[in-house]
Amino acid sequence: xxxxxxxxxxxxxxxxxxxxxxxxxxxxxxxxxxxxxxxxxxxxxxxxxxxxxxxxxxxxxxxxxxxxxxxxxxxxxxxxxxxxxxxxxxxxxxxxxxxxxxxxxxxxxxxxxxxxxxxxxxxxxxxxxxxxxxxxxxxxxxxxxxxxxxxxxxxxxxxxxxxxxxxxxxxxxxxxxxxxxxxxxxxxxxxxxxxxxxxxxxxxxxxxxxxxxxxxxxxxxxxxxxxxxxxxxxxxxxxxxxxxxxxxxxxxxxxxxxxxxxxxxxxxxxxxxxxxxxxxxxxxxxxxxxxxxxxxxxxxxxxxxx
Length: 306
Prior knowledge:
Helix content: 55-70%
Strand order of the largest sheet: 2-1-3-4-5
Number of helices: 14
Strand content: 5-15%
Number of strands: 5
Distance between the termini: 74 Å
Shape: globular
């Protein structure tokens, strides 16, 4: 029986400038982001790609079929779902990706109880910097531009996020407030929902969710969308429920390690997306933003002096 492997909508791997077989960081980040939306057979193939792209690149389709416990036809369909003509093209891209990565036995492996403080520092810095690079390959400039235009509109702006994503929502609210863009950040589902039902056309509801499946933001997002509100989602998973509900999807690329679960690892990449959104909004409203920053900076300096 053939498995139905979902084909990603929108930009494929390397969409920030490269083709399907473009930047290795883009390819691995794309595969990682699509994992939750794949069928079990495709997910086994994708997991092998994420865990060890060099090994997959060295494997024939028959060898990979045995490793993944799936059919060769599933491998071909997975390669095509990722934007490649077939498995040979995917192998070439993975070989290029593997050549650019640090040795997996050192920086890219998870933190263990035996690691020294120096090893913990090196691994965490590598993981976080890798997340930043991968986010740059996943964040679609067209989607960002659309989200910026919506935020710059004159309607209400409400931002929702729970847990670690709630900290990111607060960060965006604080940044936008500094440049004179009124907005509200909600860290719980009830507050987000009661605000979402009062929104309409011209307003914006922005949800932050690493998985894109958090019930705390999905229902407010659905209600806001149903009322004609422009919806924006920051998520690590472009095929998630939240992403499908949104008008604009800003994809982050957080990575998990042993002592850094998804909610923690996602934060640095989400903050990169938030900074990109904020700076582009400030650019678009340069005169107002510059004046607001001067006034707020002066007020804070005066408060410190006192």
